[in-house]
Amino acid sequence: MAKPSKPASFESAMSELESLITEMEAGQLPLDASLTAYKRGGELIRYCQEQLANAEQQIKQLDGDSLKPFEPEAEQ
């Protein structure tokens, strides 16, 4: 079996992960397919976590190495 490719983006990884979860929750996958889906899900989660950590680092650099609490603009 070929190794699954790296996701094209965070959004595509999330979409694939959601599909895997839906398939697994349906309970219709054979054991081998369930194990493969579980492993792929773990890979996708790690990829997403890395992408979020990278985004956080970029934000820290842009904001002078400190994250600030999100404060939505007040409606006028």
UniProtKB/TrEMBL annotation:
Compartment list: Cytoplasm
Name the record gives this protein: Exodeoxyribonuclease 7 small subunit
Species this protein is from: Chitinimonas taiwanensis DSM 18899
Pfam families: Exonuc_VII_S (PF02609)
Primary location recorded for the protein, binned into one broad class: cytoplasm
EC number: 3.1.11.6
Superkingdom assignment: Bacteria
Family: Belongs to the XseB family.
Biological process annotations from GO: DNA catabolic process
Catalytic activities: Exonucleolytic cleavage in either 5'- to 3'- or 3'- to 5'-direction to yield nucleoside 5'-phosphates
Subunit structure comment from the entry: Heterooligomer composed of large and small subunits.
Keywords in alphabetical order: Cytoplasm, Exonuclease, Hydrolase, Nuclease
Enzyme class, UniProt record, top EC level: hydrolase
Main function: Bidirectionally degrades single-stranded DNA into large acid-insoluble oligonucleotides, which are then degraded further into small acid-soluble oligonucleotides.
Keyword ATP-binding: no
Keyword NADP: no
This protein's GO CC annotations: cytosol; exodeoxyribonuclease VII complex
